[in-house]
Amino acid sequence: MSGGTNTLEQLLRRFQNEILFGAVMLDKLTWDGFELTHACPVAPRSWLLRAKPPQHIQEGFGLAPELLFIAVQGEIQARDLHRAADEVVRSGLRLDGNLVIVTDDGHTYDGGRPLKDRLERIPGRDQRVAWVWGEDRFWPPLSEVLRQQLPTYDVFEERDAVRGHQLMGRDAEVMELRTRVLRGDAVGVFGLRKSGKTSLVRAVTDALDPASGIMDPDAEHVASQACVIWIDAQGLDQAEVDDVADEMLAALRRRMRTAGDSYEPPAKQGIGGLKAASQAILDARRRLCFVIDEYDFLFEREGNLGPVPGISRLLRQVRALSQQQQGAVSLVLIGRDPEHVSVPQLDGVPNPLLAGLTPMWLGPIRPPHDTEMLRTLGRRVGLAVGPETATLARAWTGGHPLLHRQFGSALREEVRLHAPRSLAKEPTDPHREGAVERFLGRQAVLDVDREIIALLSKRYPDAYTLLLDLVESPDPATAVKRSGGPQGSGARMLRNFGLLDEATLALPKHLSWYVRTLLPTQTRVAV
Ligand SMILES: Nc1ncnc2c1ncn2[C@@H]1O[C@H](COP(=O)(O)OP(=O)(O)OP(=O)(O)O)[C@@H](O)[C@H]1O
Ligand SMILES: [Mg+2]
């Protein structure tokens, strides 16, 4: 958020003049130790503010360095919340992607309903904390409201890609991917379902080109020198290659509009249009990054249709651009594995990516970051995650991000059952075993396991055989040796997917549990 030439002080003065309750709100924040950092009018009588919480609140609740506020005179609308989501993208990693504090005065008008009720009716999965004065016209301190409201929301239960400060434990991966993108590499980000691939790549592209990740085309413009063209191949499965190129052109046009960029991609469509547009961007000495999320769908179309016809033309074009403008063009493919881009021929011609794609395998969140994630999210919901709990969680989930969060969610459920209304931080160690039971009952756990089994048994028989052997065998080292050793294809693939602990050769317990209890015996011996 920039206020043009206005200083923060001027903006805050304007805020207090325009919004009836603005002065009270700012007073309350200051009283609580918050430091205002940004203020921006986003529509008539609608403002976004950002403030740094005092350290004890930030750490006590595991919050991002800044909190986001929406203040509306009248009634808050869905679009105010969309603007807030876009602000998260704009802020780099300074805001939580799943938390916003909302204030309006809709409830003070005749027939106005409480803000909390109205917020519940606006779709979306993030936590909206309603902060308003009560019936007695007393406005409670925000710290108190947070203490009451934050624990009521299950922050662990999240299935979509995470944004902003919610990306945890991936600093090294973000740095590596960023370096590769800036170097103009073609990178494949591979990993199991829900291992955090989209979240990782978004963290890099949000920083490089926020406009590529902002949804509201009328948002305040954010310019950048890099152009990220992001498409999701899921849903394009009936497409021809020109449709894929058109999708990219549409993404580019959206990005240009959001950036307030005067550049208009040429009207020409298809591969030809994409070529002309790319050339024009590069001629303006700008960087270009293509991202294809769920790239597998371009190669496995529904009904066993095989690759999108002509897909090699598109890949070849990206490669040609990147060779011609060394370092200025990068490509990021996101998917489960490099299977489709490692075939020698595509469309009957040599595969343009065969030698040029650097694989980046995204495994689990490594210690101690897995524990930090559990602790940070735990603080937000009023849990003091203990060391025994952290060790147990690691053993069961192997650090897989979605599963680790699911463990936290199961833990929260278990603790709340035993200590329902405690407002102090509740120690989790006494409840850890109960959490395992709940964790194993989660549909998300079964889904991830089923997909791991399907993937390995279909595409990686050596890894599958080794997996089954490891589940049965008391001595993992011998099982690995039997499969061809640590460098054999079975062990290598399990390691790529982050399923085999480097040091102990242990499998995550959710997976051995799944194979032992839920995988039919005939499937187990079928390979
Ligand atoms: N770095 C992270 N920190 C915290 N949570 C994460 C992180 N990465 C992933 N998650 C959790 O995992 C879930 C899946 O993340 P994401 O959608 O990025 O994975 P993906 O590999 O792209 O999944 P898919 O297979 O559906 O494409 C998120 O909803 C979030 O709960
Ligand atoms: Mg994804």
TrEMBL record:
Domain of life: Bacteria
GO molecular function: ATP hydrolysis activity
Domain ORC1/DEAH AAA+ ATPase: 189-336
Protein name: ORC1/DEAH AAA+ ATPase domain-containing protein
Gene source species: Sorangium cellulosum
